[in-house]
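Why should sequence recovery work at all? Because a backbone constrains its sequence more than one might expect. Tight turns favour small or flexible residues, buried strands favour hydrophobic ones, and helices have their own preferences. The token representation captures these environments compactly. In the example below, the structure is given first.
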């Protein structure tokens, strides 16, 4: 499951993006990947591990909703919830 969000540039600020990806790992757990940065520039990748799919999906929704409140807009989604 993946969602791509962008924050449109304002004034002299460049456009920013955030990509959230929820996927199973090789050991039966789940990982939430958060890639963020400036469009066309450097990026940062953070990874969180979860044992239960419910916890992982809850963290995914919480991260997505927090960024929507900060002014990001969803530009692309793929996949279905892993429930």
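From this structural description, the recovered sequence reads:
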């Amino acid at each position: 499951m993946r969602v791509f969000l962008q924050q449109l540039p304002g004034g002299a600020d460049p456009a920013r993006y955030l990509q959230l990806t929820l996927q199973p790992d090789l050991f039966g757990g789940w990982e939430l990947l958060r890639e963020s940065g400036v469009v066309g520039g450097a990026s940062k990748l953070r990874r969180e591990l979860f044992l239960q799919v419910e916890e992982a999906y809850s963290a995914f929704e919480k991260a997505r909703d927090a960024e929507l409140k900060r002014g990001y807009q969803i530009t692309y989604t793929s996949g279905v919830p892993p429930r």
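A few observations help interpret the result. The radius of gyration is 13 Å.
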